[in-house]
Specification:
By secondary structure, the protein is α+β, with helices and mostly antiparallel strands. About 25% of the residues lie in helices and about 40% in strands. The chain has 8 helices and 11 strands. The chain has a 6-stranded antiparallel β-sheet with strand order 1-2-5-4-3-6. It starts with a helix and ends with a helix. About 20% of the residues are buried.
Length: about 210
Amino acid sequence: MKIAELLNNEFPEFKKVIETSKLYGIHFTVKPKGIYLNRCYSPKVFEEIKRNHNTSFDLNGILVFEKKSKKHIPLKLHYFHNSLTIIHINDPKKFHRNFDLNNIKVEEIEIKHLNLQNPDKEIVLKVLKSIDEQKLNLLDIENTFKIEIDKKLFYTILDMEDGNYIAIDKQGKIYRLNHDNKERVKKIAENPIGFFKIYSGLKSELENMMNV
């Protein structure tokens, strides 16, 4: 929000997207290293976002004060649908400790527009190659991303819209990821075929096992 306010004259759409959505999850990415910010929209707002904010770009020119060096350090930021999605940073877990997030400067802003491609989506589609299109349409794989938990990689296939996910690994095993549960990762199906025996398109079908 701080960046959106600083850039409001040039990019008023940043603030608009924030105000019409909710932050549902913060995750640490592996390649590239950084912080992934996941936002949730109501169905009506999401249609408007896809229609009027269908963007993907890197933004340079934002500097944040680093406490140790006492200098402003440039950040590479990635925006998707005009929403800050990835903060590229080498030590993401200590970002809030290493930097003063209230001390932000703006230099000359540079925008590098990107094709709307998601390499994690390609991995998920390869793992799900035996699943027909009708079943694929029941999943949220358009904006899938990888999450590292205990040095294992998981790829989201369903956003439960509360900060938790259903995810798949490269072997095709399906898991529920619950950041509030003592057991954050739990396998719920051995393969996609087994998963679709318990899921027919309604996320409410999975609510009970999300907390087990």
